[in-house]
Design goal:
128 residues, mainly beta, seven-stranded mixed β-sheet, four-stranded antiparallel β-sheet, 0% helix, 11 strands, globular
Length: 128
């Protein structure tokens, strides 16, 4: 059983910044790749960013490239999403996901189906 937990959401004005945190636990010797997805009201869940185990590679959605940065934490299987220059269209519930191969080899990194475990989500609201 893998537990994924996000934190750090909140309300911010347009142009502001937030940092989301995520930790995956439960399988001591498994090194996860970890990604962020988001879902706005009335829309499908969409890919935001992902990072392989060991921070070998990072990938971003075009809509956030240059504004968001995904990074690994010091702790095992932790990841951060630094969000700068936030826009009202970034408003969504942000979900953290863990992928058990660590190398994003379960499937395309931008597809939710490629990830094994999910957190409950954290709300990010950007006011104009």
């Amino acid at each position: 059983q893998v537990h994924v937990e996000e934190s750090g959401g909140g309300l911010v004005q347009a142009g502001g910044s937030l940092r989301l945190s995520c930790a995956a636990s439960g399988r001591t010797f498994t090194n996860y790749a970890m990604g962020w997805f988001r879902q706005a009201p009335g829309k499908e869940r969409e890919f935001v960013a992902t990072i392989r185990w060991g921070a070998i590679s990072q990938y971003y959605a075009d809509s956030v490239k240059g504004r968001f940065t995904i990074s690994r934490g010091d702790g095992k299987n932790t990841v951060y999403l630094q969000m700068n220059s936030l826009k009202p269209e970034d408003t969504a519930v942000y979900y953290c996901a863990a992928e058990s191969t660590g190398l994003l080899s379960n499937g395309p990194y931008y597809r939710a189906e490629s990830y094994d475990s999910w957190g409950q989500g954290t709300q990010v609201t950007v006011s104009s």
